[in-house]
Amino acid sequence: MDEPNLDAMDLMLSGESGTGTQIAAEIIAALAKVFDANGFVSIKSSQISGVSFKNIGEAGLEFLESLRAGGARSRVMATLNPCGLDLDAWQELGFSESFYLNQKRVIDAYGGLGIDATCTCTPYLWENCPGFGEHVAWSESSAISYVNSVIGAKTNREGGPAALAAALTGYTGNYGLHLDENRVPGVIVNINCPVESYFDFGTIGLMLGKQIGKDVPFITGLDSNVCTPENLRQLGAAMAASGAVALYHVEEVTPEARVMAALIKNGDITPSTIEIDAIEGMKDALPANMEGDGGAPIDLVFLGCPHYSRQEVLDVLEQLRGKDLKATIWIATARRFKQELLEDAQAMADLDPRVKIISDTCIVVCPIDELGITSVVTNSGKAFFYLENNEHLAVLYRDTNTCIDAAISGIVAITGEEGLHAQD
Amino acid sequence: MFTDKALSFYGGIDPGTGKILERGHPLQGISITGKILIFPEAKGSTVGSWTLLQMKKNGTAPLAIINRSCEPIVATGVIMARIPCVDKVDIMLLKNSSKITIHDDEIITDS
To answer: Taking residues A12-24, what's their average pLDDT?
Structure first.
């Protein structure tokens, strides 16, 4: 154990730094005990979920306000996960004022703790981007997967409050994925079928998450040319949603894969093996009263789970330019990218008013039932996974082009047993 | 209440009623409120910790949790919500117990 860290934690646990920091330290210490941590490590940054009022409610708000009243304040770079609405355009999108005010209370409570009110699940695309090998404490499952796997930073799958406690103390327990021995693969996944599009990566991610649970996979058979940051983001988000995969390695792609390949080759580790010979489609999630003939009328097309980069939003805008839309389309991104695009007359030229670039929120955490939306199509495996349990909603999962066509036509063909599988 | 399948607190459970929503889960439609809930581990979104805190305030939380392998969702959620939790338990031994008492970290069954 690192003595200075022990001293710092002891000081916080004693209450010297105030009761808010003390509570945060208690959470860190308790987690360290649960996980038999090898002391504590100081962290470079934190990313905190539990931002939507819908998710945390009055109970969560009371908890945050008690921390602030107790003098706690973030000691590292810390950003927030998406909240329940777009903090700028909430009225235009149909959110109620009472919901906005409650959400604002939550954001302000975090702000009072010194936490940046940037609400995005992809902060690594700009200001909150860790480096290879750095210890961080993140809590958005898709972001954890991305920074562990694609960047090679080290974070456990923190609960939102644990990431908050890490921000308020500057420490987390030294256990789990902070230790190199726990970053080795437990399962080799051999993919023996073509995986080419954003949609394919999401679909195979949903399949793998269900099979792998929380194990670390070493994935072979993916063409490195299609392992773009966007596609890997989609793969990791889906595996983290349908399973609990916090770290994956892709042969010849991700930064730790070479070391892991050597361990496997030398017989230092002996993972089990899964063979994937075909991509299975996902069944449409339809309310009981909706028949499968003809097509499903679409209220909302949702793109941007996880939040799109500026370029991804621009690519969609290009496809929609000059088109009349029959369905509203939300393209979700970080607030900075939204603002840049909205101020760019060329980017915004000749677009139907139903095209909405949204920030701070996403369809998974906003109160979708209150907006009168009854049918959604998305290109996100993660969003589909979380929405399909909503019994009031028809939820269809399709490739990006089908989603864009749905915004134009207002309709998506229903396939009955399985979702469509088409090229992006 | 026992299940050998992982539970998703965020999205998989209704914090208003305490009922399990996840389609196809063996406990789908059943309330976990006031129960000693035995399951292997949590899965899904890490927002689930807040769900446990909300359930505590709503009065829909489980009385206690017994896990084969606590992960961060449950480990943090139970500290915030002050829900008793016992970890690293061979839960299959408890599958058919009719009565379970938790005293500190000790589990006492009468089956």
So the answer is: 93
